[in-house]
Amino acid sequence: MPSQPTKARAYIDTNRVISPISPLLFSGFLEHMGRAIYEGIYDPASPHADERGLRKDVLAALKEVNYRAMRYPGGNFLSGYRWLDGVGPRDQRPRRRDLAWQSIETNQFGTNEFMEFCKAVNTEPMLAVNMGTGTIQEAANLVEYCNAPVGTQYADLRASHGYREPHNVKYWCVGNEMDGPWQIGHLEAAEYGLKAREAAKMMRWHDPAVQLILCGSSNSAMPTYPEWDRVALEICWDQVNYHSMHYYAGNRDNDTTSYLALSAEFENFVDTLDGVLRYVKAKRRSKHDVYLSWDEWNVWYKDTSGSGGWTEAPHLSEEVYNLEDALVVAQWMNVFLRKADVLKIACVAQAVNVISPLHTTRDALLKHTTYYPIMLFSKLAGGVALDVAVQSPSHDTARFGVMPLLDVSASYDEANSTGAIFIVNRSQTESLPLELHWQDRAPQRISAMYQLAGNDPKAFNSLENPNNIVSVSVQPPAVKDKAVELLLPPLSFTVLETRL
Ligand code: AHR
Hints:
The protein has helices at about 55-65, 110-120, 135-145, 155-160, 190-205, 225-235, 255-260, 265-285, 325-340, 370-380, and strands at about 10, 15-20, 25-30, 70, 95-100, 105, 125-130, 170-175, 210-215, 240-250, 290-300, 345-350, 360, 365, 385, 390, 395, 400-405, 405-415, 420-425, 430-440, 445-455, 470-475, 485-490, 490-500. By secondary structure, the chain is of the alpha/beta class. The protein has two domains: about 10-15 and about 385-500, Golgi alpha-mannosidase II (Immunoglobulin-like, Sandwich), CATH 2.60.40; about 20-380, Alpha-Beta Barrel (TIM Barrel), CATH 3.20.20. The chain has an eight-stranded parallel beta barrel, surrounded by six helices. The protein has a seven-stranded antiparallel β-sheet with strand order 2-15-19-20-25-22-23, covered by helices on one side. Strand 3, helix 1 and strand 4 form a beta-alpha-beta unit. Helix 3 crosses helix 4 (about 155-160) and helix 6 (about 225-235) runs parallel beside helix 8. The radius of gyration is 23 Å and the shape is globular. The mean pLDDT is about 95. Bound molecules: alpha-L-arabinofuranose. Alpha-L-arabinofuranose binds near residues 31, 75 and 296.
């Protein structure tokens, strides 16, 4: 048995480029579910509401995260949604029973309100069309409504609703989780593939600039995974640009050691689907590329409530995040950078209240632990992802075998002469000494260093104690001989911002 190193070493070389980082890896998701829309972003009764009913404090927090795109309106909700319900004069919009979440949908917030919201937070809209109860004609009509110049029925309808200029929505999801038996209008892979292909053709005929996202497996535990993905992709390959992945993680067995090693599973999921993409591309002798869109990802296992009891804006799935969840989120985002060659979109599910880093009451806003890694990655990861060589002490995990204690990713932005290194120490008990070496150009200095850490993996933030687990600015080490030395606390996430 070789002896364990006692210290970790990581080697950074700006020539070892994985790929440019797609800014859309830092995107969000908003569904008509629970209190995400109503009482989340839209709450005319809140003292924080602006003249449109949008919550100013929520908008400010979302702007700070800087989500590059926002997926909307679902989710499972999508598969029963009639988009015409949500446009036009508010007093004429129908109240409906939402079968996905057994809630009452008032339709007071719809497509145009969402566009206003996107403008307010400077994010790109990513709309989804209903492939459950919806027809391919309705999907095409929505593209016409959003993107066509005035002069035909649905574009004129948009103009009559106060929006003469097209919204020019570029990103479109063709359905949601159609592999899941829980989905309204669930289809087998080939049935979905054929419907999605025909919808995609019509959507693209309306607007050839649209970028389409095909439904992939709802998670890697689905019995149809990854065959569903192969079948749907083989049918739709030429018509789509992205293939979606969804995954919700959890520490269901309270095995924190395995939970903190989940990056192994995340990487495996991407690698398998990357293999499927390569297989289908080769089989079809295609020159066209399809990339992955992880358009629902998050920790979700403590509050899985999904029935609203036929009420408006019920409290559903309002997960409270703790320190270990934040460390899982941080290493998940490390995986985004390490897989930046094939993964181009990732949407945190969701943006407010429902399985979200943000929680609102009528007059207050709370940032959960997971807010901090999401915000730091979004703010600092840019340019290209680097392939970091890591040597690390390891430990045994029940679920993934031997895993390194250190989980690292790095980015380098040549245009701005900046870099960032994102480091998780998975150990629950040990501080980990780390030597970080730059193999080509070393930064003159570490311009800033941020850390999120604690002794208790279950520690969380609350309205009474909102700053229990937050990222703090710490004194960065000096760069000496193209290297720095760090002592990473147990259960920690550390970010170094460098300037070359
Ligand atoms: O984000 C919550 C739900 O999780 C979504 O509606 C669905 O797509 C997934 O199963």
